[in-house]
Model the fold of this input.
Amino acid sequence: MEGNNSVLSAELKRLRDSTENLKSEILEDAVKESINRGRRLQSLVIQGVPESLTGSLEERKRYDIGQMKRILCELELPESVVSDVRRVGRKRSDGSRLMVVRMCDYDSRMKILSKSKSLKNSHSMRQVFIKPDMTPMQQAQDKCLRDTLRERRANGEDVIIFRGEVRARSDIQNFH
Done:
């Protein structure tokens, strides 16, 4: 019986240590996620903007800044709201890597996001899509939401994504 007691005590100690390690890993991951989200609060991701494949790095950057100015002009917003523009991802033959744009402030980001839907009515900007810059965790959650939306629409439901949830379009009328 004493042998079983010492084995159980050792197992209990191992489980406590394991639990403490998991708690600290979860806390560390949560802090990293929070910091990462904070860094992205003033950034946007723009898809579908053609990329210059020739010239020096500086020339390509000036080209991207010019493209961003065209988008802002189309949205009737001032150029001064942009603080940095850069491309991310591997270079592709079609020259359309994602463009990450850092705004001067959060309000500028929100103005651009709110007006971005109007680009689909523009002849020259129809293929340009603007989204918030999201962490990998947020991207996974967003994909899950979109998959649920697609599935429910396939079943004939009239649903939209509203405030991070898939909801019936008729329920949203009360929020406006």
In short: The chain has three domains: 1-39, 43-133, 137-175. Residues 43-133 form a domain with the Alpha-Beta Plaits fold (CATH 3.30.70.330). The radius of gyration is 23 Å. Helices lie at 2-39, 57-74, 106-115, 136-154, 169-172.
